[in-house]
Design goal:
Recoverin, domain 1; globular; lipoprotein; Recoverin
């Protein structure tokens, strides 16, 4: 395969074709189950924390909540990861952390997701507890132990270091790399 980098101005057609053929090869039914999703990303046999995280990612990609990711949901997810504006990504991260869907992130939810991500990525400069405490200390403006979407987005937009940390920690480009089988893209 040639090392053809797509430029930001390029249309999505060749890229989408690549994803479509990969998706249909891996998933001829056109419906990707959680098991197939893990297989596609080579994420079988994770510890329970890692499994929880992958299930959350899968559930968020499964826009109509039918238990499968179809091609349109798959492309919407990839598009968000590659081309999404920062506020779209922050809303997505918020949804990922808000495990019970109540519109707030509490410390337990953030700790659980960060622990799961560490289980998959395997490298970090701080413990999940330190990370969670730091996030809440910096952006929980009313100190109620819960973050609203507004607190989350405003807090991250005001703190570049924290934004970078969150973006790196929850970067899904390693998921994309698995899907792309080694093809590189500038994000």
């Amino acid at each position: 395969m040639g090392a053809t980098e797509s430029l930001p101005g390029d249309g999505p057609a060749p890229e989408m074709h690549h994803y479509y053929s990969k998706f249909m090869r891996e998933c001829p039914s056109g419906q990707l189950s959680l098991h197939e999703f893990k297989k596609l990303l080579d994420l079988q046999g994770l510890d329970p924390q890692g499994d929880i995280y992958i299930k959350r990612v899968f559930d968020i990609f499964d826009l109509n909540q039918d238990g499968f990711i179809d091609f349109l949901e798959f492309i919407a997810a990839i598009n968000l990861v590659i081309r999404g504006k920062i506020d779209q990504k922050l809303k997505w991260y918020f949804k990922l952390y808000d495990a019970d869907g109540n519109g707030y992130i509490d410390k337990k939810e953030l700790l659980s997701i960060f622990t799961a991500i560490q289980a998959i990525n395997g490298h970090t400069d701080m413990s999940a507890e330190e990370f969670t405490d730091m996030v809440f200390q910096k952006i929980d403006v009313n100190n109620d132990g819960e973050l609203t979407l507004e607190e989350f987005i405003n807090g991250l937009e005001k703190d570049e270091d924290l934004m970078e940390l969150i973006t790196k920690s929850f970067d899904l480009s390693n998921v994309l790399k698995a899907i792309q089988s080694g093809r590189r893209h500038s994000i």
